[in-house]
Every structure is written in C-alpha cells, then in structure tokens.
Amino acid sequence: MNRTPPSNRPAVIRLGLVQSACTGDREANILQALAGIAAAAGQGATVVCLQELFAGEYPCQAEDHGRFAEAESVPGPLTERLAAAAQEHGVVLVGSVFERRAHGLFHNTAVVFDTDGSTAGVYRKMHIPDDPHYYEKFYFAPGDTGFMSVPTSRLAVGPLVCWDQWYPEAARLTALAGAEVLFYPTAIGWLDGEEPLHAEQYESWDTMLRSHAIANGVFVAAVNRTGREGPLRFWGASVVYAPNGQRVAVAAHDAPEVLVCDCDLGRIEWSRTRWPFFRDRRIDAYGGLIDRWGG
Question: Is 63 among the residues known to form the active site?
Fold first, then answer.
C-alpha cells in the first residue's frame, strides 16, 4: 500500500464509531449498522468504523459447522451495501465481515471503503484466537495480507481486528506502513463466572490500546460490541486515544452508542517529535522478534 498520506485531506477529521448490540436477526443487525453510519455522518463524521462481525451474533462461541453459511464473498452482497452507504454519506468506512474466500476457506476480514464507495483496501485478521467462547481457529484461516496502511481521501487507515490489539508488533508494523489511525473492530467481553476478573480484564484491554497510541504516535480507535450473547457480555466501551495517550472519547459499557469525536492529525507529528520513539529504534538489534522464543 502507498505510504504517502493524502495531500488534500483536512488536518482535523471527525471519527464515528458505531457500537451495537446484535441479535439473531441478520437483516435487523445490518439495518442497525447502516443507521449508525447515517447517524455518525449526520453528526459530521467523515470516517466511520463498525464493530467486528456486525451483521450477526458473534459466531465463534461454539464450533458449529452451520455458522459457515453466514459467510459471504468479498465483494459480495454485504460489502455492496456498505459501499453504497459510504458513497451515500460521503464517508470513509471500515466494515468487518465473515469472508468466504473459497470452498472451505474463511477469514475474519476488515474492508475499507472510500467516500465514493470504492474498495480502498482489504485486511484479513492476522492473529486468530482460540479460547472459551472465542473458537475462531475453527472458523478462520490466519490472514495473509500482512499489516498495512490504506490510503483514502480522508486519511491513511490502519485496519486491524480484535485479537490483533494485544500484539505490539501488529500496531508497530501498521504504523510503520504509514497509518494515521489504527482501527480495531472488536468483539470482546466478560464471561459469566469470571466476575472477580472483570475489572482487570477490561483495564488490561484499555491499557493495551492506549499503549499502542503512545508507542507509535498514532490515533487508536477500537469499536466494541455491547450486549449479552449467551454467557458472553460484551463490554462496549468503544474508545479513541490520541498519539500522546489522551483518551479523546469513550462509549458506555452496556448500551449501543454512536460515538463521534474530532482527531487533529497534526498531533501525530507533534507527539513523534516530542517522544521520538521511531527515531531511536534499534532496527539492527530486533532480529530476535522473528523467533518463536528467545531461549
């Protein structure tokens, strides 16, 4: 992808994050997301991001072959509706889809649309978890797109997805590619029976997002689901962090919300010249990062 930021974009962009609660009614979920895009645009947002796999209930709580029927090709009917929404509202849009790439081959995919509805970039989730009620390895092949910056008419988009947010390497490589905002469509929540851990689990997640912003001098936007699905209660709290770690905006834990905030892209340069982490990187000494273990 082109590493050069668009030359004619405004210095300040307005982000819109659409945090939703999903049900088993696919069409209702899609209409809810489209309404969220319209609401964000109505508040002046020029860049909008949806939550992870917004078109349905989170499919990976059990290993169920029937859930593969929910997947669609990219491009396909769902991405066509997203493209039309991006064009209608004149926004850059990041949408998360359950991609059917070929017979028996599926990905957890983020698609970036430009303001004219064209597809600006496709990112396939690189890190695939396998935990209780997050059985993603059953469903998704690891992404093969690598980490990228997607140039659009508004900004350079850094698409990542959920589990990617725990990996500093993913954030760093996406920032090094030229991304100005790291976007994380997300589905993370609390499990019943783990109540004593709930506060620290949320705080760990939030700390990781903030640390990516500081360490890379970029904006970070995470758009999480909310609501209960089986034993999972998604904790919402969609959030935007500035390059210096300032929390720009945060949504409620337990309710759908369209979160809109301004991001001054000039803060990237400001932060990187005050905290010159990129200048001082020892690229000659990091070879061990490609080893599984350093022992």
Answer: no
Q: Which fold has domain 12-281?
A: Nitrilase/N-carbamoyl-D-aminoacid amidohydrolase (3.60.110)
Confidence of residue 2 (pLDDT cuts 50, 70, 90): very low
pLDDT digits (tens, 9 = 90+) for 131-188: 999 999 999 999 999 999 999 999 999 999 999 999 999 999 999 999 999 999 999 9
Is residue 207 over pLDDT 60? Answer: yes
Percent of the chain with pLDDT over 70: 97
User: What is the pTM assigned to this prediction?
Assistant: 0.96
Domain boundaries, the chain: 12-281
Q: Which residues share a beta bridge with 181? A: 157, 219
- Catalytic-residue membership of 162: yes
- The one catalytic residue in 49, 125, 180, 257 is 125
Is 125 designated active site?
yes
Say which amino acid occupies 191. Answer: L
- Whole-number Cα distances in Å, 51 to 5, 74, 266, 283: 25, 17, 26, 34
Element (H, E) at 193: none
